[in-house]
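Is adenosine-5'-triphosphate placement plausible here? Inputs below.
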Amino acid sequence: MGREAETLLSNLRKRIVGQDEAVRQIVDIYQTYLAGMASPGRPIGSFLFLGPTGSGKTRTVEALAESLVGDAHAVVKIDCAEFQHSHEIAKLIGSPPGYLGHRETHPLLSQETLNQYHTEKVKLTFVLFDEIEKASDALWNLLLGVLDKATLTLGDNRRVDFSHAMIFMTSNLGASEMNHIIRPSLGFAAGEAEQQAAQMMDGKKSEKLSKAGKEAARKRFSPEFMNRIDKTVVFNPLGESELKKILGLELRAVEERVSRATGAVPISFTVNAAAQEFLLREGTDLRYGARHLKRAVERLVVQPTSNLLATSQLQGGDALLVDFDPEASGLMFLKESKEAVPHRQSNKGNSAAA
Ligand SMILES: Nc1ncnc2c1ncn2[C@@H]1O[C@H](COP(=O)(O)OP(=O)(O)OP(=O)(O)O)[C@@H](O)[C@H]1O
Ligand SMILES: [Mg+2]
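Reply from A.M.:
I modeled the complex. Tokens:
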């Protein structure tokens, strides 16, 4: 593997937990592109991401943009739920000249939009069609042309070139079938241990999941469409050990936010093991993957910390330790001197009383 592809691989692995298949497929396509071997007249690559909510489908695209152009938001994102009716397509491509409102419509998918994140070094565009199954047939038809010829024709007949784009489509299709495989209903009599055993992921199960996802996609999408997609990847549901790693990533991100907020004089910010264990307990709901965990971190760590900053109880140069308080069964926030900041969370953080 070339050096640039290696770098991308390690950057993605640092950011994305438990989805090696997705990471590998992206790096493969990037490598083909770097080698100048991408098929001419087509997008650099097209991907369909399936799998449960909160498993990293959208995050993977952001992490790719972060790794290659240094900005997670450098993604052209189309929320397909906004294009359920064919007339809404005008928002994407603009209306033909002469139509009412023609002058006012700036197509969302213009060449300028696509090129806006290009840098001196990287002329790549990441396009994300989120919740693709919600789109109207009119959007499907547009996509067929984009996937096949890397061209989109706007309402006023201008052409948009997608040959420097990587196209990602995400969908929850098959999620309920997958849920059934992950968590078979055992009936009332099943004990906790039995339930846990039934939820364990193994190779066989993950193969079943992958099949169920692809099957659901084939039922919903036409063969023309499926055949134009380079890679279909089914994301794995996240288990406890993955969530634990993601918690580490999320806390590092919070630390960066804290540093940014205090500017030149940073705050040393530590969440100790007991506090992390508590967060993991509070933030684990296997139905919602890392989404639930992320919300717990916002509620139990970010909000109280913001409160301390806003009231100047915490300032640049301070050292903050977040610890678990068994008595209150919540987190407590201590300044380095071990003198408790008068801010304590109790009752699992539902109230952040002083
Ligand atoms: N595999 C993962 N590795 C690292 N972080 C993750 C992973 N999965 C989820 N996260 C974290 O959880 C958040 C939500 O995940 P994400 O938006 O990628 O879910 P999704 O799979 O797109 O779900 P949905 O189908 O509901 O859109 C991300 O922003 C990220 O912080
Ligand atoms: Mg998503």
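Short version: Residues 3-234 form a domain with the Rossmann fold fold (CATH 3.40.50.300).
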